[in-house]
Structure formats: C-alpha cells, structure tokens
Design goal:
It contains 9 helices and 39 strands. With 759 residues, the protein is mainly beta. It has one domain: Maltoporin, Chain A (Beta Barrel), CATH 2.40.170. It has a 22-stranded antiparallel β-barrel. A 5-stranded mixed β-sheet has the order 1-6-7-4-5. It has a two-stranded antiparallel ribbon with strand order 2-3. The longest helix is centred in the first third of the chain and has 16 residues. It is globular and about 80 Å long. The relative contact order is 0.12.
C-alpha cells in the first residue's frame, strides 16, 4: 500500500512539473497564456472551488444535487454559537440535542445515524475535522462556530469528492478568511447566567503577504441545578492565526502558500446522567448529586499548510498538509458498583427508567449516604491525532462543444485513538461524593485503534448548453489496526497484546445531472454509492456500510424567490450501528451489522423577499423569509438482536430511532435602514428513541416542541452595531433525549445583548 501511495504522489508531482502534461510546450508559452488581468478575487474563487463542498455561492444554481450555503450574513442574524440551531435551517439534516449548547453535536444527514456526527464528513476548510475520522469518527471535538464565516452542506451524488462517508453528505465549516484590506472586529455579548461571547480579530493583506489573528471565548454558568450545588456550565477558548504569502496576480507561475495554526480548549461540567421523567415534570433543569464530579477537559491543536499553483489558465494544483491533535478527559459517573450486596443493578439507564424497582440505587444517585465504592466514576481519557497530505489538480478544457472542469485528487491520511482509562470509586455521604478507591490509569481500558487510508477521486463537471453532468468515482483503501494491551500490561510491553488488522477497499461511483429547463429553473437528479467504514474495534464479521442513493429535484432562483425541492431514497444493503456511550451503548465504539434498511423523504427549502413580492422593496426595506421542511421515513428491513440500547431487538418494519418524520423551520427578518428584527421558529415532533413501530410511547420518545428565537440589531454608527438575542423566547421546557441515562432538557430562555465594532 505504501508503494502504491508513493507512485500516485509521484505521478501528481510529475503532472505539476511537466509542461507537456499541462498542455504547454514551454514556460514562455505558459507565461503568454496566463491572463495578466487575473485578479486576486478570481484566484480566490478557484481556491474555493478546490477546498469547499459547494464552490462559490454564485455557481450553486448549477450544482447537480442538493446544497446549502450559510454565509456570514446568515450566521450573524442570530449570532448563534450552537451549530444545532444553525443547521435546523438546512433541509435533510437531523439533530439530536444533548446538553443545550451544541458543544458535542449529533448530526445526521438524510437518515444517517446522528450519534456524535460519526456518519457524515465533518470538515473545516475542506479538511476532515473529527478527532480520528477513520478509526474513531465520533466527534467529541467540534469546531467553534463563533469563529466561522460560513457553513456549507452538500448532499447527493456529487459529494463523493469528500470521503470517507458518502451516504448522507458533507458538512464544511469555513473559517474567517484573511481580509483583502486592513480589517478588525471586536465583539462582546453578555446575558443570563453570565453567558458570554467574546470575539476579536485583526488582519490585512498586502501585495504579497496577508495575515489574520483571531481569538474567541464562549461561556455560560449553566442552566441546570445540581442538588449538591456547584457549576454546570462551560468555557470554550479558541486562538487562531493565518499567514499567507503569494506571488503577484499576473506572475507567469502564480503561487500561494497559506499557514493556519489553531488552539482550542474546553472545560465543561457536563454529564451523561439525566433525570427521571417524573422529576422532569417537577424540575426539568435538576441534576442529581451523583453527577457532581462530572467534568470534561479537552485540548485541540491544528496546523495546516496549503499551497496553490496556477500553472496556466487551464491547470491548477492545490496541496494541503495537515495535523490535528486532540486530547480529552471526561470524568463522569459510569455506573453503580453491582459487586456490593446493597446494589442489585449498576446500570444507570435501568435505574432511571424504573426507579420504583431500584429505590436503594436511585437514592444513592439523589445523594443518600452509601457504602464505600458504591459509585464508579470513569476517567474517559483519550488522545487522538489525525494527519495527512492531499493534492487536488484542476483541469479546464473544452471537448465536443462541452466545457469540462476535471478534478483529480489523492489523499494519504493517518489517524489514531489511544485509550488509557481508569475507574475511581466513591461513596455518597449526605449529598457529597468522597473518593474511597483511586484507580490506576490503564486498568479500565488500554488500547490503540488506528487507520491509514489512501483515497483517490476523479470528478468531472461537464457543461454543455443547458446541461451539467458530474460523473465521479472515489477509491478508498483503508488499513485498520487495533492493539489491545490489556488491563495488566500498563507499560505496553506487548506481553498481553491482542492485535487485529484488516484491509477495506471500496470504489464509490456516482453521477449527477442538472438541466436548465428555463431561465431560472434547474432540474437535477443523481445516483451514487453510499459507504461508511467499520473501524478498527469492530468484529471480524462486520461489513462496511453500503447503500445505493438516489435523488430527484428542482431549483428555482430569481431575485425574489429561491426554492429547492428534492426527493431522496437511500437503499441500504447493510446499515452499520455504532456502540457509543452517547447513544446508549457500552462505549466500545465498535460498529455492527444491522442489515437492510431504507430511508426516503422530501426536502423543501425556500427563500422569499416579501417586500419585493409586495412591491414594497426599496434601498431601505427588505423582509426576507426562509422556510425549510423535511419529511422522512426510515425503516429497518432486517430483523436482528443488538446490545445497543436504542435498537435492541429489531423486527422488519421497525422505524429507526432519532429520525423525526417531520421537521419544520421558518425565519423572517425585517430590515429597515439601520434597524433589524427577526424571529426564527423551529418545530420538531416527538422522536422515537427506541426502534419500534406503531404509536410513540411516552417512555421511549422525546417531546415535540416549537421554539422561537428573537434577534434585533441597530447600526449606531458605520462601525458600531448593537444587538439583542433571545433563545427560546417562550421559555418552553422539553425533553431532547433520554439517552444514555435518563431524560435531558433543551436550553431554557436565554437573553444576551452585545456590541460589535468593525473597522
């Protein structure tokens, strides 16, 4: 495999250096053919085509598939720091909320599992951002939305450029770009419970050099109330720097080198322990005393170097090297110690589902005095890294009256998850937890899972008259390795080593077709293969996730109305389940076969300018209205037994949990001169939390809810903006999840006010 990857990289290098393969006979010819008038803006657009999933927003109408772009204006409307609330405005995206802030979002696209966003391609600036995208894709790290300038979502056949997961779609977050002139931003907002958002950036670009420095802090004291007292909030900090050097825009060989360095840390008093449904009715924001020690601490660093060469008007090469390191220590209540005679069951979900049957155990969770070692708290300590290099070559050429934009790319990637964990034991004494037995690191879990992947893709966008056809193919060659050293060999000498290795190879073809039926109307369709790898900790009989996915839709765009309607059908020959603690599993992260399944539905998105439709528009007035609706049916077509809580014993015809049948979101803004006011509404019906059929059961479903978010802003001066935002304006209380242990609430009403300075 290493030989194969070396040959491919060598071939790309030859292509970038050989004038003949560039369609040129000499550097002099290259210089003549390079457009002297190429502007930096045009070059920026070419780079955006290579590193984003939708390309430039102006070209989205011709994409032969469903796509959404949320730019800086949309992101600033409500100043959301919770990506869940932003993505509610994207059709076909499913959210399973967890702690109310979006710190560790659970995102699925077109029926893929949402647990820790492990079935989608989550990226920042075109680079996979999960801690270990192949070996452990569960996203316990998620980029801070407060520092992003845009978010884009790509679905359908033409997203196979972005792997390894190709079933649902790709989510790419675009960080703040280096400004084209001297620019600075400072923002401060504060609100209830000492909630705060601090942001500052400064940058500039000269003829040959550019830079940006950026710092962000988001925090909150927490809306939940611990029975024993103490914090339930969080603090997230980000520092990022970008540096760029480039040749002049009219150079015979234009080159650009960009370096990005980032640091992120988080401290959050978060837990997996929820409360009973009866207690939720009385005090929805309560937290039991047994979660008082729960805290997550994370550190994330990123480094990325990206080189761009414009070899001619027809050929460009973008090469990116990257390294992400992530460490997390989530210290949280794991179970009660069932080895003690006083404790009949240690499972937290079982206790909270039927507290009347486990009254002694339930009382310990509430704070009643217990024997020594009654409560087990696990230090879920894990270290990750992900690194790689990828190169994308873009070719533009005409053939048979059709224009072609061909992209060929190769990526060599390596990632790893290192678990070295222990359990501590406590007793409860009048509501306070006291350490009675300290664990030894490595005695609970001591293993390393890793993956090395070579991915190659080829995709051509062919435009002929009113037609756009985008065929493509992706090849993934993934080598998985799992090394379990056991809970005795803490020095990892290999004396008790159990090692497994296996290889996964897959071809992922797809094609998308778009037809401009009228000046403003595009019809599109596509079909592609869906794929998701099984991971290193899966059993030997676990297959890759595989499906064939279809879509058919249309897109209408004019100055007053933009709408997209898409029908989709995903036919799974094998659906993978993930044993994640976040979803109610045991936490091994192993994947298992679930057999055949199908997911189908309809997505609707519409943006209307009401003032223009009513002939009221002017330079001072606009009333944009945004609507999104998703209808989904997700069904198991195989029967099986699993230890994964939300699935359990599955029969043919059971619905897949945590995928709502209906989702609706509407937002309207009124902008008049320097004043703006807007309301964003989100409706989600009750969701099934356990596989099954028929009517929903209260004990196995979330709540239905309608939320309203309010935002207002006033441009006091050209450089000063004042704003007020209110989340959950009507202060609704609602259950967002009952996994892994007990029910958990959504965010209560939260008001924040702030000021933004921009130079």
């Amino acid at each position: 495999m290493k030989t194969t990857s070396s040959l491919i990289l060598l071939a790309l290098l030859i292509m970038t250096l050989s004038p003949e393969l560039r369609g040129q006979s000499s550097p002099q010819k290259q210089q003549r053919e390079t457009a002297a008038g190429d502007s930096l803006e045009t070059l920026d657009e070419i780079i955006m085509e290579r590193i984003t999933v939708t390309g430039t927003p102006e070209r989205m109408s011709r994409i032969p598939g469903a796509a959404t772009y949320l730019g800086s204006v949309e992101l600033q409307k409500h100043n959301y720091t919770d990506v869940n609330r932003l993505l509610r405005g994207v059709s076909g995206v499913y959210i399973q909320e967890e702690e109310g802030y979006g710190l560790r979002p659970n995102i699925g696209i077109r029926g893929t599992g949402s647990e820790r966003s492990s079935k989608i391609n989550m990226m920042e600036d075109g680079i996979l951002a999960a801690p270990a995208p192949y070996s452990a894709p569960a996203a316990y790290y998620f980029p801070n939305i407060a520092r992003m300038s845009a978010i884009e979502v790509r679905k359908g056949s033409s997203q196979i450029k972005h792997g390894p997961n190709t079933t649902g779609g790709a989510l790419n977050m675009i960080s703040t770009p280096i400004p084209i002139e001297t620019s600075g931003v400072a923002e401060l907002s504060v609100g209830e419970r000492a909630s705060n958002r601090l942001y500052g950036s400064f940058g500039n670009r000269t003829d040959r050099f550019g830079y940006l420095v950026e710092a962000t802090h988001v925090g909150d004291n927490g809306f939940k109330e611990l029975d024993s007292g103490g914090g339930t909030g969080f603090s997230v900090k980000d520092i990022l720097g970008k540096f760029m050097v480039h040749s002049s825009a009219d150079a015979s060989l234009y080159q650009r080198l960009e370096l990005k360095l980032g640091y992120h840390d988080e401290t959050s008093d978060e837990t997996y322990l929820g409360i009973t449904r009866d207690d939720f009715e009385e005090s929805p924001y309560r937290r039991y005393a047994a979660s008082q020690m729960d805290e997550m601490n994370t550190r994330h660093t990123q480094i990325m170097a990206r080189h761009f060469m414009l070899l001619s008007d027809q050929v460009d090469v973008t090469t990116t090297a990257y390294r992400n390191d992530f460490s997390r220590a989530w210290y949280k209540l794991h179970q009660l110690n069932a080895n003690l005679p006083e404790i009949e069951t240690g499972g937290l979900h079982q206790i909270l589902s039927a507290p009347e049957l486990h009254q002694t155990e339930f009382n310990y969770l509430l704070g009643a005095s217990s024997p020594d070692n009654a409560l087990t708290v696990r230090n879920n300590s894990r270290d990750y890294f992900a690194q790689g290099i990828e190169s994308i070559v873009g070719f533009k050429f005409d053939a048979a009256r059709a224009s072609n934009q061909l992209e060929a790319g190769v990526r060599l990637h390596q990632d790893q998850e290192d678990r070295f964990q222990e359990n501590d034991h406590y007793r409860m004494e009048s509501g306070r937890m006291i350490l009675t037995t300290e664990g030894t690191p490595g005695t609970q879990d001591n293993r390393i899972g890793s993956a090395t992947a070579l991915a190659v893709f080829l995709q051509d966008r062919i435009e002929w008259e009113d037609w756009t056809v985008t065929p493509g193919i992706r090849f993934e060659n993934i080598w998985f390795r799992n090394r379990n050293y056991g809970t005795v060999d803490l020095d990892r000498t290999g004396s008790d080593l159990v090692e497994t290795e296996y290889l996964v190879q897959v071809f992922v073809p797809g094609i998308g077709i778009s037809w401009q039926a009228a000046d403003r109307l595009h019809l599109f369709t596509g079909v592609h293969r869906g794929f998701s790898p099984p991971g290193p900790s899966s059993s030997s009989d676990t297959k890759s996730e595989s499906s064939v996915n279809y879509e058919l839709g249309f897109r209408y765009v004019d100055s007053a109305l933009q709408t997209e309607v898409v029908g989709f059908y995903n036919d799974y020959s094998n659906l993978l389940g993930s044993d994640l603690a976040a979803g109610g599993g045991t936490g091994t992260t192993a994947r298992f076969n679930a057999g055949q399944a199908e997911v189908y539905g309809v997505e609707l998105a519409a943006d209307l300018e009401i003032a223009q439709l009513l002939n009221m528009s002017s330079a001072h007035l606009s009333i944009p209205l945004n609507l999104n609706y998703t209808y989904t049916v997700a069904t198991f077509l195989s029967s099986f037994e699993s230890d994964f809580g939300p699935w359990g014993s599955v029969e043919v015809g059971d619905r897949i949990p945590f995928i709502p049948e209906h989702q609706f979101r509407a937002g309207v803004h009124l902008n008049y001169r320097d004043f703006s006011v807007g309301v964003n509404s989100i409706y989600s019906p009750a969701m099934r939390t356990v596989a099954g059929s028929g009517s929903l059961e209260r004990m196995n479903s979330t709540d239905s809810y309608l939320l309203l978010d309010l935002s207002t802003s006033y441009q006091v001066l050209e450089s000063v903006n004042l704003f007020v935002n209110v989340r959950n304006l009507l202060d609704r209380t609602y259950i967002v999840s009952d996994r892994p242990s007990g029910v958990r609430p959504g965010l209560p009403r939260t008001a924040m006010a702030g000021v933004r300075f921009q130079m």
